Amino acid sequence: MEIPSCLFLLLCLSLLSVVFSSNGSQNFIVHVSKSRKPSAFSSHHQWYASIVQSLSTSAHPSRIVYSYEHAANGFSAKLTAAQAAELRRVPGVLSVWPEQVHEVHTTHTPDFLGLPDEFDLWPNYDYADDVIIGVLDTGIWPEHRSFNDSGLPPVPERWKGTCETGPDFPECNRKIIGARSFHRGYESALGRPIDESVESKSPRDTEGHGTHTASTAAGSVVRNASMFEYANGEARGMATRARIAVYKICWNYGCFDSDILAAMDQAVTDGVHVISLSVGAKGMAPKYDRDSIAIGSFGAMLHGIVVSCSVGNSGPKPLSAVNVAPWILTVGASTIDREFPADVVLGNGRILRGVSLYSGDPLNATNLPLILADESGSRLCAAGKLNPSLVSGKIVVCDRGGGKRVEKGRAVKLAGGAGMILANTKTDGEELVADSHLIPATNVGKTAGDLIKRYADSKSSPTATISFGGTVTGNSLLAPKVAAFSGRGPNRLTLDILKPDIVAPGVNILAGWTGSTSPTGLEIDERRVEFNIISGTSMACPHVSGMAALLRKAHPDWSPAAVKSALMTTAYTTDNSGHPIADLGTGNKSTPLIHGSGHVNPVGALDPGLVYDINPKDYISFLCSTGYSEKIHIFARDDTDVKCDPHKMKPGDLNYPSFSVVFNADSAGIQRGGVVKLKRVVRNVGISKNAVYVVKVNPPPAVKINVSPSKIVFTERNQSASYEVTFTTDGASLVTKFGSIEWTDGFHRVRSPIAVRWHNDLVASI
Asked: Known catalytic residue: 137?
């Protein structure tokens, strides 16, 4: 998914690899057993410094970049490969691995989500005015109207953080209560200081992504918000009165492990309630013990902090979900009932639906010559590859993919083209993403794109025009649908845990923007906007982060797992017409491998009836059951008595609000038949202490499900009850099958999705 963020990331990563190979050293993340510190050292940092100083010398002296105490135990250091190998042999060192570079996963939505303007549904909650959301991103534009602190009470006493001020970041306020910048890992990888003529070293956002996510999660109410008159209305975050703590971790060349861990460590110390992290691994999810986000999130969870992360933008490929640790709230992206129509009108009168945020002069001619990009030099409209003599004055049909969408429009413009039709291929299906193009342009789905191409091929002089229709909202637009780019399962690390957890609005989202760069991020684009409309799971994540803040205010005694459970079990799986949510990547009905438990429902989550709770020891047992016994102290931290028993529980017995079942998991091939038994515990958090819940089972095809007991009687609030589910099959299937279990007391509907496979081969079971 191309969004205006971390410009030239691929080039930058290539440059960094050159830096590493040229001087022979790079940043490593080192995890240690805290209890192994020798008594001769007064602090862990002193011990770490002594360890590093004891390593064999090299042409580039090793040095500590950060020490970690709360989100993790250990440090990061710049080392050679030989020094890293030497360090692995030091007593108390649990793991040493090279730092990874992560990427960012880049309003009408409160109305679409059912969040009311008034406080009737949130009595005494005041939209989370004493809840602090830590936003780890590209920084923030502090002067933006979305961060006005008018009417907010003093900063919560819980807050222990600070505001790093400077020439271009003069102050914080009662909305942005803290701001810090984490760049030591970035500079260490660069081998030089940040060039402050190119990017700000302060918490100021010069890229836009962080301002967008922060204002989505907790932006104040802003009236008459729009982007070039598109999406005109009232912009507000999910938790309009929550406080924002800014941790700038992402730079022009990416987001570095050492900086991410340092920011999470600081956020725990500062006293945040929620961490919002629209950042993740590039490619497939790394193992839990090699994933700084998973490790830092575990440490945050130990301190009662909800961590909400984006699932990534590598869909619709299977196995593309990242941030899949079960203690993370993993969020995919969906559409809302708002579009920006820009329809293609062909010379034969055929009208085909498209979308755009183009704001310049309309096309002067009713019909212009139409040409396919692959006939004029470059099917993907790569910069400098189009033949001006063929393109000049024409509308060019470019295939989507292989670069930023707005870059393709720029290439057409520079070649003299009059307009662009950006046609989806199989990868993006029918997903439509609006962009603020520099040229009259629109994005059409694969079906429309194929029709346009066939028309152009069938005519000697094909023509077309683009009709721009402004902003359209309402139930005539089927929503939500899951974005094609949204990362999806199966969970490559643990088949027994269904990911993503949930989907939320992430397509064509209006939110605050930096004053430092244009809405497209292109150097040629001199426009500046107060609000921008962009897409990505980065945009979905802060919606859920804001909702988590609301739930923390309403239920301060709930654990992070209980908050996640409330959001998952109340999610819905139908669109605004009552039909199953569709997947824009395939054009078919979405499944739990794509949307998890469903689309987030903040009003329902306020009163879920039952919750599935998980404590830290349960997560440790889960990790032991999945083979992390040797590295368990990376997560167990201070608990020196942890003895892993991989047979104590099955991974699927983690008290998760969803079910992922694998028949014959130990088999080398697909076999017929099988029985799997899983246990769960639910807690009554409804208003009534006397509640009777009855189970309703929707079994997957070829699977029998027995739930025992089938009725649960509660006589107290916060009372817990257990049940066991037996999954039985006589058949087998090459593909995953789906169903659900739902507990109801006549008012609450506590729903858990089910995914069933007959094989442990991830690809074979998709």
From this structure: yes
